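Example record

Each entry pairs one chain with its bound ligand, pyridoxal-5'-phosphate.
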Amino acid sequence: MEKNIPYKIYLSEEEMPKYWYNVKAHMKSKHAPFINPATQKPCSKDDLKSVFCDECVEQELNDTDELIEIPQGIRDFYKMFRPSPLVRAYFLEKLLDTPARIYYKFEGNNTSGSHKLNSAAAQAYYAKKQGLKSITTETGAGQWGTALAMAAAFYGLNLDVYMVKVSAMQKPHRREVIRTYGANVITSPSETTNAGRKILAEFPETGGSLGCAISEAVEKASVTPSCRYVLGSVLDHVLLHQTVIGQECKTAMDKYGITPDVIIGCCGGGSNFGGLIAPFMGERLEGKNSVEFVGVEPASCPSLTRGKFAYDFCDAAKTTPLAKMYTLGCGFMPSPNHAGGLRYHGMSPIVSQLFHDGCIKAVAVEQKSVFEAAVMFAKCEGILPAPESSHAIRAAVDEALKCRETGEKKTILFGLTGTGYFDMSAYQKYNDGVMGDNIPSEADLQKGFETIPKCKVNGSEI
Ligand SMILES: *Cc1c(COP(=O)(O)O)cnc(C)c1O
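Structure tokens for the complex follow.
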């Protein structure tokens, strides 16, 4: 029975998760392994450990343990900004005049302004524990760079952040936050790496892309002693770290006897969505619930809804291992939009596999309608949402409006991944009525697909 639900459901420190939830332990079809492009064979642990921290590689390849302990050193850091509130969106429900019950999990209550600190903390902790001196990474919208800068400062590591050029120009203050926490910011493409120089020679006018910034950060890590590369989404271990979101939701909902019918999350690289749904998905795969899962992506970068399920590079310069995922092609250059965190060409292999197996639905939404929903939400629930998060708001609002038509009393949970204070130039465009929708044509997509490598494993093309 549903009890009287407060506006905000908080958990106590003791109720915070002590384990991450490894959804792969419940997946009957595991996703295909990473392939080393040089050997065309599955990546060995050593292949991966030359790029990533040892412990992250162990987690990346762990398909069997349902629960993986969160070290005390990470749980201590989490206490600064977790548990995050689960909010009953009473005001939004009223505004929409819907019989649906809407909940959102708010991950924006920390200086980085997003869920990304959950994985940044873990990855910086493991780098330090391994005795490394420095780490490198890329950042698009800047939330990941900020989160990692905070974590690197806390654990005492040097950090180089390759920041996508358009974002650095749109968000000079975001860049300054990263520098304030002590990290070095390099705009990408840059002259500091082979990958950057190559892309600049080919596309001198480019505003950069996440894929390109990844190439630079990986290259920098590989030529710097005692340094590893750290990624903010896509990979299994990042998704694993984000399962604190879903577990806190589940604990809070169980306390009040709430069962979600639909769980909605925005999808960039897929880690926040994967982390939000993981414990619910685990139960669904065991036949214990029938929750519907909806991933929301921008129509300008539609990897799930219009991409191909194929082995592809994780970066534009084709330097990373190949991952089997939904992809628009590693050379796909999304047109500039205002959801920098959702401009990635690929999708988490876990989310991709679940989508391929029909366990997840995907929708693509257009930018203007996303900002409409964002502004509606800001006015009635108070929080100024990140453009990325607002993709989930849009889909949740649409679901609630459907319930108004049908009279269904669905319980909707969505992930509110962050705040939009550094996205005011996007809001300005919206407020000035000059925001457009950039939807790639079939020909644009085709150009991207042509950059997906032909890949042979054991002699046959895959
Ligand atoms: C990075 C980011 C996203 C995308 O997250 P993924 O886990 O890569 O899908 C969504 N919202 C915000 C606020 C972000 O910063």
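The chain has a mean pLDDT of 94.
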